[in-house]
Amino acid sequence: MDKQKKTILFLHGALGTSKDLSVLMDHLVEKGYQTLTFDFSGHGQTSKWPDEFRIDLFARELEKYITDHKLKNFILFGYSMG
Questions:
Q1: Own/partner long-range contacts of 13-16 (Cβ < 8 Å, ≥24 apart)
Q2: Which of 2, 17, 18, 67 lies at a 20 to 30 A Cα distance from 26?
Q3: 67, part of any domain
Q4: Does residue 1 lie in a domain region?
Q5: Does 2 map to a domain?
Q6: What distance in Å separates the CA atoms of residue 59 and residue 6, rounded to the nearest whole number?
Q7: Which helix or strand (DSSP H or E) is residue 8 part of?
Q8: In whole angstroms, what is the distance from residue 31 CA to residue 29 CA?
Q9: Count: domains in the chain
C-alpha cells in the first residue's frame, strides 16, 4: 500500500458486489488515489450467505477489513447498505 497516496475504501450496496464501483475507482486511481474494496458476506465472490442479513454483521466485517489491512487515515465511501 502506498502511504503517500490518499486511500479511499469503497463499500458496495445491498445485493451488490465490490465490482459495482470499478469505473469510479479506476478514474480515481488515474487521479492519484489508492482505492480499496471488498465483498460483504453473501455478495460478489463470497461463498456463503450469512444466516441473517444484518447491518451489525456487515459492520463487523468492515471493522475486520480495516484492522486486517491496518488502515488508519482513509476516506470511507458507501451507498445503500454500504
A1: 13/78, 13/79, 13/80, 13/81, 13/82, 14/53, 14/80, 14/81, 15/43, 16/43, 16/44, 16/80, 16/81, 16/82
A2: 67
A3: yes
A4: no
A5: no
A6: 23
A7: strand 7-11
A8: 5
A9: 1
Contact 32, 59 (CB under 8 A): no
H or E element: which one contains 35? strand 34-37
Query: Whose grid coordinates read 478514474?
Result: 27
Say what the pTM is.
0.83
Query: Nine-digit cell at 61?
Result: 466485517
Indicate whether 35 belongs to any domain.
yes
Distance CA 16, CA 8 (A): 18
8-57 pLDDT per residue, tens? 999 998 888 888 899 999 999 999 999 999 988 767 676 676 666 778 88
Q: CA–CA separation, 38 vs 22, rounded Å?
A: 11
The x, y and z cell numbers of residue 26, run together, are 479506476
Instruction: State which residues form the domain around 14.
Output: 7-78
